[in-house]
Amino acid sequence: RSLGRACRTQPPDARAYPAGRCAAMTPLRAAGPDAYATLGVARGASDAQIRQAYRRLALQRHPDKARVVSRERATKDFQDIQAAYEAVSPENRGRYDLGAGGAALGKTELIAACEARDVDRVRRLVEESADVNAQDSTGRTALMYASGAACLGAMRELIRRAADVEAKNCAGHSCVHFAVGAGIKVDGPEKVQQALDHLEAVRLLLDEGAPVNASTGYGLTPLMLAATSGRINMVELLLSRGAEPNA
């Protein structure tokens, strides 16, 4: 395929695919190195960032521009770049991510998108009628993953599509448990923002009717998690919404 055609590659219109088609596809693995690493982008990069990285590399590494390496090596590198982009292009990315380990846990494409904090992909999948309440093998839903990542955009998309804010996983953890973000230690500017995002994630869930006193099978509540992590603002929010301090 010519460079011009490769660089003009655009993602297909999601509406051209029947609802649920992507979820039924088998996981996809690209041969060779990790596709994201080949393109020089993070696994959580947006589709637009991936496309931009591909176009830049395709122009820089085209065999016609080879000066340092042999033509054969340049052609191989260019083919690897094309294969990497094909693997993580919008129509294939969900299957590629599942093939990287998610399939073993029963993760759906929507769950993988939430875990990656990819709001654009979450929006596209729910518009294609992805099951917002599907669970992985541990009972976690897409909303639980989005809550754990404090990805407010994804959370709003899921809730707008009637995601169950009261759902629990196999161990009894609720969306609020995940949103509390118990492992966060506020020891730097980035962690401060992360803690604030989790605070807003909990606030959003509670505003939507999530139970503040949901407990696991062994009695662990969101308030206990917040208290253990020493996050006073989270504790205050939960108490103001009716969390039981004597549970």
Automatic annotation (TrEMBL):
Domain J: 34-100
Database matches in InterPro entries: Ankyrin_rpt (IPR002110), Ankyrin_rpt-contain_sf (IPR036770), DnaJ_domain (IPR001623), J_dom_sf (IPR036869)
Keywords attached to this entry: ANK repeat, Repeat
ANK repeat extents: 105-137, 218-247
Name of protein: J domain-containing protein
Organism expressing this protein natively: Zooxanthella nutricula
UniProt superkingdom: Eukaryota
Pfam families: Ank_2, Ank_4, DnaJ
